[in-house]
Amino acid sequence: MPQATATDALIRVAPAVALRVWSRLWDLTLAGDYHAAEVVLKIVGRRCTIMGFDPPGDTDLTPPRTVLVTGSSEQYVATLQSLIAETEDREAGR
Q1: What is the pLDDT of residues 27-48, one digit of tens each?
Q2: Residue 50's closest CA among 15, 86, 85, 84?
Q3: CA 65 to chain centre
């Protein structure tokens, strides 16, 4: 688990203060302040981490796919074997 930062402490101990800071920076972000936008994104990201909204690092975020296989039994088996091999290659990084 990453070490706590001052941002983490602010969000945990004084959420109302963090919200006011974020609110003021949000107004600057909407006005086009690039630095304020970076800070807003960091605050949002940190809050997501602290609140447990981030997925574990080993989660596969690849959406499942639907495959329609037609043909004879032999074609069906051959297609499934091909899909399995393709998936194994992709997971192995080939």
Answers
A1: 898 898 888 888 888 888 877 7
A2: 15
A3: 19
- Number of neighbours of residue 67 by Cβ within 10 angstroms: 8
Tally Cβ neighbours within 10 Å of residue 43: 19
pTM of the complete model:
0.43
- The per-residue pLDDT for range 49-73, each reduced to its tens digit, is 777 787 666 666 667 777 777 788 8
Instruction: Find out whether 11 and 46 touch, Cβ atoms under 8 Å.
Output: yes
DSSP 45-91: HHHHHHTT-SPPTT---PPP------S-HHHHHHHHHHHHHHHHHHH
Q: Going by C-beta distance under 8 Å and a sequence separation of 6 or more, which residues neighbour residue 48? A: 54
Spatial CB neighbours of 88, under 8 Å, sequence gap ≥ 6: none
